[in-house]
Write a structure and sequence with these properties.
The protein is α+β, with helices and mostly antiparallel strands. It has a domain of about 140 residues: TATA-Binding Protein (2-Layer Sandwich). The chain has a six-stranded antiparallel beta sheet with strand order 1-2-6-5-4-3. Helix 1 packs antiparallel against helix 3 and helix 2 packs across helix 3. The longest helix has about 100 residues. Keywords: Coiled coil.
Length: about 220
């Protein structure tokens, strides 16, 4: 089983994010002037993380995404959100860089009137939950990228460990071969000692034979 080395760290990050994802009511300049909206700060994510989250969360509401020229603003035209209005809703949205993350801001246009808490608290809370869903999804997207990156590191570490294990196995085999060679060499030395002893006896016998022959020769004179 492969252990995920980033799990504990990411669990604490996830817990921290879930505590900090809090949509806030604002009034802000946008393409329709200063209007009430809802914003949330999403830490430690990329712009792609947020854009992908917006796409996923807005998909059930249908509508057509339209970019407003010369601005960071875009809107979902004619979105269908029955909990907010029986008519279609235009959701104006802005994604802007902030500190170590991004601000995601949404304005819910009910046909000239922008939704705020004073107009309808229940509907405003529902809209705020949509904004929060985007933030939660974006955070999950960012964490998934971190997990992929950390798992690549883990894979490399496991690969290094396997290579080291192979090296150790090879070295152990070399040591065994060396020990076997030493053992064989030690036996060869003992065998050679015995052969040398036997050879010394043969030499002495041969030397004595020569002496005897020399004595016989001397007697012939």
């Amino acid at each position: 089983m492969k252990y995920k080395i980033a799990f504990i760290a990411l669990f604490s990050i996830s817990f921290g994010y879930s505590q900090n994802i809090t949509p806030v009511a604002i009034t802000q300049e946008m393409s329709k002037g200063a209007q009430p909206g809802i914003t949330v700060f999403i830490a430690n994510v990329s712009e792609d993380n947020v854009e992908d989250a917006v796409k996923d969360v807005m998909k059930p509401f249908k509508g057509k995404k339209t970019k407003i020229k010369r601005s960071d603003e875009f809107f979902l035209d004619d979105a269908t959100i029955g909990e907010i209005s029986s008519n279609t809703v235009d959701i104006h949205q802005i994604i802007s860089k902030a500190d170590n993350g991004y601000n995601y801001t949404a304005f819910f246009n009910l046909g000239g009137l922008f939704l705020d808490n004073a107009y309808d608290a229940r509907k405003f809370d529902y809209a705020a939950n949509i904004v929060r869903d985007v933030a939660v999804k974006a955070t999950a997207n960012g964490m998934e990228e971190i997990l992929k990156s950390e798992n690549k590191v883990l894979d490399e570490l496991e690969k290094d460990k396997k290579n080291l294990a192979k090296d150790s196995e090879k070295l152990e085999k070399n040591i065994k071969k060396a020990k076997d060679l030493i053992k064989d060499s030690e036996q060869d030395i003992q065998d050679n000692i015995k052969l040398m002893e036997n050879k010394a006896v043969e030499i002495e016998q041969q030397r004595q034979k020569i002496i005897n022959l020399q004595n016989v020769k001397s007697g012939l004179n």
